[in-house]
Design goal:
The complex is a heterodimer of chains A (115) and B (110).
Chain A lengths: L4 E3 L2 E4 L5 E6 L6 E7 L6 E7 L2 E4 L8 E4 L6 E5 L8 E8 L8 E3 L3 E5 L1
Chain B lengths: L4 E3 L2 E5 L4 E6 L6 E7 L5 E8 L4 E4 L2 E6 L4 E6 L8 E9 L3 E4 L3 E6 L1
The chains are: A mainly beta (115), B mainly beta (110).
């Protein structure tokens, strides 16, 4: 596709529900990032993939958060047993190289609201 | 915690004036990147400056980098209402992790 695509754009989940957020990166991009952004804050790093390998998941806030990129392309961020503090915009980004010497392209994000 | 720290947190100026935002970081870098985010949208890359560069221009944007002070500045000249957005700097931690600061919210008043 022309850019990074995320779906759904908006998700309302009841507390305790599991959710899955999808990211389609730009074809051929090696690096893929997930970020969590609270209102008025900067994007907080969650996890990073290089192709299908998850090289850094230090930003995942708890073991309820899980991300995968099984074929080195599409990625899914799963949140189990959602809680109100999980409400945020989840941003996905991809970049061509593995050392971040080129720009990262962002999707529009998924706004998650846990009620 | 975030690698980059932007300053000021918020800036409001009149259309036509110049806007300057600063970013400080803590570790050594290969490059520093600036991004813009309009309300409710994803981030858009503006400019990348490498550690061996001191200044870079792109249209009305001018970025400087001082590796001795671990700081960078973004200057937007002749601001326009459409420049209203949040601006973030980003650096790479470790080999590969791209980390953002908290951003500067810029408001251009017509």
């Amino acid at each position: 596709g022309a850019g990074v695509s995320q779906s759904p754009r908006y998700k309302v989940a009841k507390r305790g529900q599991d959710v899955a957020l999808r990211c389609d990166p730009i074809s051929g991009h090696v690096s893929l990032f997930w970020y969590q952004q609270a209102l008025g804050q900067g994007p907080e790093f969650l996890t990073y993939f290089q192709n299908e390998a998850q090289l850094d998941k230090s930003g995942l806030p708890s073991d309820r958060f899980f991300a995968e990129r099984p074929e080195g392309s599409v990625s899914t961020l799963k949140i189990q047993r959602t809680q109100q503090e999980d409400s945020a915009v989840y941003l996905c980004a991809s970049s061509l190289d593995r050392f971040q010497n080129t720009e990262a392209f962002f999707g529009q994000g998924t706004r998650l609201t846990v009620v | 915690s975030q690698q980059g720290e932007e300053d000021p947190q918020a800036l409001s100026i009149q259309e036509g004036e110049n806007a300057t935002m600063n970013c400080s970081y803590k570790t050594s870098i290969n490059n520093l990147q600036w991004y813009r985010q309009n309300s409710g949208r994803g981030l858009v890359h503006l400019i990348l400056i490498r550690s061996n560069e001191r200044e870079k221009h792109s249209g009305r944007l001018r970025v400087t980098l001082d590796t001795s002070k671990k700081s960078s500045s973004l200057l937007i000249t002749a601001s326009r209402a459409a420049d209203t957005a949040s601006y973030f700097c980003a650096t790479v931690q470790g080999a590969q992790k791209l980390v953002f600061g908290q951003g500067t919210r810029l408001t251009i008043n017509p």
